[in-house]
Peptidyl-prolyl cis-trans isomerase
Amino acid sequence: MNVVKKDSRVTLHFELSLEDGQIVDSNFEQAPASFVFGDGSLLPDFELALLGMSAGEEASYVMSPEKAFGAHNESNVQRMPRSQFSMDLEEGMVVSFADMSKNELPGVIADIGEKEVLVDFNHPLAGRSLTFKVQIVAIEAAA
């Protein structure tokens, strides 16, 4: 039987939802997505959940924050001088920053004070358990 292995190209439908059922991402109403196992398209624990599944099979997994986008890390929340921002800010807004290596680093404006702005650099889904629903469409050997 053809099952998902570590050298598979997998075509699937997927859905990510929060604890309250709110859908974060889904391609069930679209063309299925394809990836090669281990190519970094899916988080490692999401890939591991697919091992042994066969074409046509559906499953649903609850992924803890540690297996999804990580725990919320307070050290990733930074206070910055309000004067550093030359734009109108709103809470929840995503702003692009550059890290020490000049790589783009998105941060969410968490709080706006008179003199300081609180910026959260955690992944927006950090600290959240997610339900990962999948339907395997096809499995092939990766080239």
Observations:
- The mean pLDDT is 94.
